[in-house]
Design goal:
This protein is an alpha+beta fold and 65 residues long. The protein is built from 2 helices and 3 strands. The protein is elongated and about 40 Å long.
């Protein structure tokens, strides 16, 4: 299986809430922190899922496509 980016979250709390929702549906996910350059450093969290779970996971975040 290949990991696909599901969405970006503005912070770790939102990413963990989404991960909990996905886990309740049996969808495993991975959260990666991404630090972008600039001053001060800006960071976001990206949530990844297996490509086979992507269609169901998109429904959880409200993006069916």
């Amino acid at each position: 299986m290949k990991l696909m980016r599901l969405t970006n979250c503005g912070n770790g709390f939102d990413a963990n809430v989404l991960q909990s929702k996905l886990e309740k549906l049996g969808i495993r996910s991975l959260i990666k922190n991404e630090i972008m350059g600039g001053y001060p450093p800006l960071s976001t969290c990206a949530v990844f899922v297996d490509d086979g779970d992507l269609p169901r996971a998109r429904k959880v975040v409200g993006n069916p496509t």
